[in-house]
Amino acid sequence: MHLTVILAVLFHSCSAEEQIRMTLLGLKPFSSEVDKHYQCHTKPIHSDWIDASLESFRTGWTRDTASDNPPPPIPDFHSMDYFPHYKIHLPNNDNNYGFGVFGCGINRTGKFQNVNISTVRMRSDAYITPGNELVTQTVNIGDKGVNITMNIQSNGQNLIWRHNNTVAKMQRTSNTVTFSISGPIQLNHSGIYECHVDGERHQARHGLNLLLVRGK
Ligand SMILES: *[C@@H]1O[C@H](CO)[C@@H](O)[C@H](O)[C@H]1NC(C)=O
Ligand SMILES: *[C@@H]1O[C@H](CO)[C@@H](O)[C@H](O)[C@H]1NC(C)=O
Ligand SMILES: *[C@@H]1O[C@H](CO)[C@@H](O)[C@H](O)[C@H]1NC(C)=O
Ligand SMILES: *[C@@H]1O[C@H](CO)[C@@H](O)[C@H](O)[C@H]1NC(C)=O
Ligand SMILES: *[C@@H]1O[C@H](CO)[C@@H](O)[C@H](O)[C@H]1NC(C)=O
C-alpha cells in the first residue's frame, strides 16, 4: 500500500505538466563589446529530464544581415558553481556578435514550454540609448499612451525606428525622440524596438528596447 502511494507521487512530479522555472541573468546591459556572456539558472535539466534541453537563441535581428546576427552558441552547464547554471559565451565581440537581444528557452519534447526569457545588450559607447536606460518595459493589454523614448547624441540625421526588424517610422534626430504606440496595447505590440541612424545599423551603436506585454 505504501509503495503504491510513493510511486504515484514520483510519477506525478515527473509528468509533463510540471512547471519549469528559470531565471536569466543578463549582466550589464551596456557593455556588449566587453562582457561576453549571460547566464540562465534552472535546475540541471540534463540529469532530471531526458526529453528536455535548454536552448539559447537570438530573439530577433538587430542588424542588417544574417552574418551580423549569428545565433549564440549552445549553453555550457556549470555544475560545480555555487549556483549551478547554464552559461552562454558570446564570441567575437570585435564583430559585435554580442550586441542584440538574446534569450533562453526550455525545449521539452521538441517544444518550448512556457519558459522563454530575453536579455538586451548594447554597447557602452552607444550613441542612441533608451530613455532612463530602461532596456525593457512591461505594459498591459489595453494600456494607452505607451511611448518608447530614446536619447540621441548626434543631431540632424535621419533616424529609423524598427519593430521586430521591420521599419515602423522615420524621424529626424533631436536630443530625445519618441515612438508613440497609437491606440490600446495589443499582444502584437510586444517585441524588439530599435532606433538607429539610417545606414548605420551595422555599427551596433544604436538603441534597443524590449516591450513585454502582459496578457489578461
Ligand atoms: C521563445 O522565443 C524564441 C525567439 O523569439 C521563439 O523562437 C520561440 O518560439 C519562443 N517560444 C515561446 C513559447 O514563446
Ligand atoms: C527542440 O528539440 C527538438 C527535438 O529534440 C529539435 O528538433 C529542435 O531543433 C530543438 N530546438 C528548438 C529551438 O526547437
Ligand atoms: C507619449 O507621447 C505623446 C506624444 O509625444 C504624449 O502626448 C503622451 O503624453 C506620452 N505619454 C506618456 C505616458 O508619457
Ligand atoms: C513581435 O515579436 C513579438 C515577440 O516575438 C511577438 O509577440 C509580436 O507579435 C511581434 N509583433 C509583430 C507586429 O511582429
Ligand atoms: C495586431 O493585431 C491586430 C488584431 O488583433 C491587427 O488589427 C493589427 O494589424 C496587428 N498589428 C500588427 C502591427 O501586426
Automatic annotation (TrEMBL):
Statement: the UniProt record of this protein carries the keyword Signal: yes
Source organism superkingdom: Eukaryota
Keywords: Signal
InterPro entries: Ig-like_fold (IPR013783)
Signal sequence segment: 1-16
Name of the protein in its database record: Ig-like domain-containing protein
